[in-house]
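User: Can you fold this complex?
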Amino acid sequence: MARVPLSDIFITGPLKERIRRTGTAYIYQPGTTTEATVYADGTNTTTLTQPISFIPSRDGLLGFVNAGEYTLFQGGKSQQIEAVAGDQALAPTPSDDFLSVYNACPQEAAASVSATTTSQVIKFVRIVPDKKITAAQVVLVSGTAVA
Amino acid sequence: MAITRVAAGLYTTDGTTLTRVAATANTTSGLLDANNTRYDEALVPATTVLNPGQVYYIGILVDATTPGTTQGYVEAANIVSKVAADGPPPMYTLAAQTALPATQAISGLTAAWDLVPKVGIVAA
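Assistant: Here's the predicted assembly.
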């Protein structure tokens, strides 16, 4: 079964503040306080002991889980999460609040779309909507040196 | 640099081929001309519907009078390797194009695990 990195999970505001403050979080089976299995990486069988560490440089949690639903918990706050294989944070998830979701994703460097007159490279970016979208709009965000 | 064209298209896929189903009508007027700015561009046809859980691709082609870059997004190297093991690539590239293709075989694309530009879909 494909595993999903917990660092790709978008964590809502109040819960994230608690996780940041404590540096840890619990991953439960949905609707219970039964600890879910969290793996050290995407393939081997090594598991992590809960609570799971929060990595500030990634702005996300350590470890991997099998695809499925879970409850994320810390300090009296919880959030239902769905880990979807292949639906990585690298591929932006559409949202009504596009930029806030996007900027919450872990990022450590700037990349680029090159724009030249002689060699046009099309970039096909994978997206997976999390809800039905009608009257769709494409959102593009410029950088710091485009003008 | 002066940007002369920003073509963006929405593609569906059956796992082997990308098929363009919509594209932005505005491909020149002011697009990406300002730094650190968000641009929402409507798709044509306006009746295009995206369904949850289905994989789509947004194709982006940018031309300019002089070389330059638009800011994008890249993950840490150790995360990228996990993406390679656990899921399909977040992006493909296709070199030397002058327009968005109507259809494109995935086998003819180059998988890319980084340099993902900031792009997405929202409801109008």
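Chain B is about 10% helix and 50% strand. The radius of gyration of chain B is 15 Å.
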